[in-house]
Amino acid sequence: MKFTERTIVYIDGANLHQGIMSLGWDLDYDRFYVWLKDKYGVDKIYIFIGLVSKYKNLYTKLQESGFTLVFKETICGEEGKIKGNCDANLVLKVASDFYENKFDKAIIVSSDGDYADLLDFLNKKGSFRILLSPRNKCSYLLRKQNIPILYLDTQRNKIEKTAQKEKAPDKDGTL
Where exactly are the structural domains of the chain? Predict the structure, then answer.
């Protein structure tokens, strides 16, 4: 399928990860990237994520999959919990890209009601494509806007990380 609109995906990385984990399965980021490209013909996919040194292998893997990472400095909150809220960074990037005419349509990946005003703005400007919700239940602030929403659990068979199955000897021509 040929896509004519320039489309960019903006992903709240923590919300995506926590949402999928709450459903009890693991996201295959390689498959997710390909699925986004194939289904929506996207030009660029940003993941907004907190920068924590112990996750450098994850960051490398995401970049190798094709994602563009936008890091937020993190701090240790109460009880040593890492905090790196990327909401404002995501909103600012979307607004900046909108006013610099870098996309025709934006796709947002999150279930967080903090993005309600952003989605309302994009929708009124005719620049919103779809909300991809990592949770089966996203914020009422998003749902009440009467916007297209796709719950990622409905795409589980396409984007879930599956255990590698061992090949039977000689099934692939190797012995």
Answer: 93-162
